[in-house]
Amino acid sequence: MGLFSRQFANVVEWKEFRDDMIFYKWSNEEIKKGSRLIIRPGQDAIFLFNGKVEGIFKDEGDYDIESQIIPFLSTLKGFKFGFNSGMRAEVLFINTKEFMTKWGTQNAINIPTASLPGGMPIRANGTVTFKVSDYVKLIDKIAGVRQSYLIEDVSLRIRAVLDQLLMKWITKEGKDMFNLQANSFDIAEGIKTDLGMQLFDSGLSVTGFNIMSFNYPEEIQKMINKNASHSMVGDLGRYQQVEMTDGIASGKVKGGGTAADMAGMMMGMNVANQMMQNMNQQASPQSQPTNINPSTTNNTKPNFCPNCGQKSGDANFCPNCGQKLI
Q1: Rounded to whole angstroms, what are the CA distances from 151 to 53, 98, 144, 181, 207?
Q2: Which 3 state secondary structure label does DSSP give 102?
Q3: Higher per-residue confidence, 186 vs 326
Q4: Contact, 125 vs 102, CB < 8 A?
Q5: What is the pTM of this model?
Q6: 122, 214 contact by CB (below 8 A)
């Protein structure tokens, strides 16, 4: 019974497929006569013999190993199954999809800055995407000694070097420490390149690196928010007026106190100034002097002499006293 039980055919497949698993190694004592290989969508199958790659199969389907797989293997293409012998080989299934994982700084990173001698403590978070690009390197560095490999394993490796890469690219070329989000694309591109070099020897390639946000200490964030609000208002004096008016309207500034007295006084002064400006603007056209032509005002002859009161008639001189009338 034991003799024939060894001849039962195998089904070589990735049974418990997981989206977060980068590769899975099928390993049994031996592949029996009549065994089949099942490759599902998003998978590649690599036959290994004595740690060496014998063949890579990328097309999904159900294959007879003896007739459809062995003829394509490098050194095993002439292998013949015997009555009591099987092929001792391993099959490595590769998840070919692009993986994405989130990252975040575990502790605040103190970035050197001239305005803060102790450095600026900054946190950041985002996502990184990667995929398997070199099967030989993956087997040499990882798959040769492991049965499986998860996204979390790669995440641990990324987090181990991420703090240093963030510090390098934030401080590079004098980035504005209080407006890092505006430079996030350049910072992310630099980290992507360096991180790709870190993972290159494992057969992995970084396809994308994204910084979602930078987080400052609470006190610094309040200063940034206040500066942004002032910039949006534009006129600091007007901003103060709006803030005071909103405070009175909302009840935050109430009567009977110094704050209310100051608010009332400021509002009264502002109203008085506005009224004076309006009055000056209205009076300015009337205060302008009018040009008077003397020739137009002295051409009319009086009916009576301004010296003696004698009726002048049509004469140019007073007939009584001789006063010139025109």
Answers
A1: 24, 11, 18, 27, 14
A2: strand
A3: 186
A4: yes
A5: 0.64
A6: yes
